[in-house]
């Protein structure tokens, strides 16, 4: 395929935007070559500036679970825009989406809307600290919770892709309050609690990780974190920015039957517009300003266009719960197809999957960040470009899960399996 215009646009972008992109992983640094500039998208397909059509496996990194330019969402945003795009005053719509989200997700009574997943996680941690009166948090290597300072301590995703686990600009003072454990490692969490008695405000984690590829919590891991938090008076925060409204209507809390004290959302909850949210019990959420002393605010929070998109998306998912089953079936079909193809290959590999999140790793077994990092990146790069040449757009980093959308057809999945077969046979 030819990417002449994309490359020209990238050259222009680099003159005025650092690295030519507004979010690092888009720049293709992990896979080499120039990023592709997109012109438009519909359903499962991206149409780039050179006129190529690509089957999309990132869905804007998760939000577009029903495919691009989903008609009801587009209609809702258009209608709402006619009425004004922002007021800085409360609207009925905010209450309606809050009610809907609370009815879909277990264990939450109040929800606050923000503009991104980063903001949601940052605010949830502040609230946990304010509520418990403690400073420290425990996070897991390879889990990504956005780019606020407390989390850029060996974060996954973009930061890992660039091989700089700690970002300059994050102070020692901040770093000392973030304790790190390997994912799925309970012993380490116990040790951290013992060494920091009475100081840990919360554990934050992706209950199913999607930022080191897809990594599942091992048997009982989440339940036992719950027990540990209760024993030590710490809050359990599920970062469901990726998994919320994707793996199940009620997210991983529903799927695995574990109660979190605070839950963060992003991606699907905004239907493709910039939205994040965090939620919990009345008791905890009442500590938030203006009801309580923990400050948090946003000029564009609860923006009417974003709320219209989010409400329409959640309502559709709530009324069409068969979507989750359909996505699961499609992803399982892809999983089986890729499994069969990879079995005939000589290289080490494994596939991790839950629901519509799936990742192919060029190493034997991936259960945490260290094992994910063992994946052969040269093979991944070759695979990535082979797939792209076959019209398939995968996340341009070996540390990312693929996110399926329900607009994908079985024919698209077959093409993906066949392109993988031709890679393995080449
Ligand atoms: C994407 C993501 C975030 C950050 O959300 P942004 O909207 O990019 O700020 C946080 N946590 C998880 C699990 C994510 O996947």
CATH topology of the largest domain: Aspartate Aminotransferase, domain 2
Distance between the termini: 18 Å
Bound molecules: pyridoxal-5'-phosphate
Mean pLDDT: 95
* Shape assignment: globular
Secondary-structure arrangement, i.e. CATH architecture of the largest domain: 3-Layer(aba) Sandwich
CATH class of the largest domain: Alpha Beta
Query: Number of helical runs?
Result: 15
SSE ordering:
HEEEHHEHEHHEHEHEHEEHHHEEHHEEH
Relative helix content:
25-40%
**Count of folded domains:** 2
How much β-strand is present in the residues?
A: 5-15%
Strand order of the largest sheet: 4-10-9-8-7-5-6
Q: What do we call the CATH homologous superfamily of the largest domain? A: Type I PLP-dependent aspartate aminotransferase-like (Major domain)
- Alpha-carbon Rg, integer: 21 Å
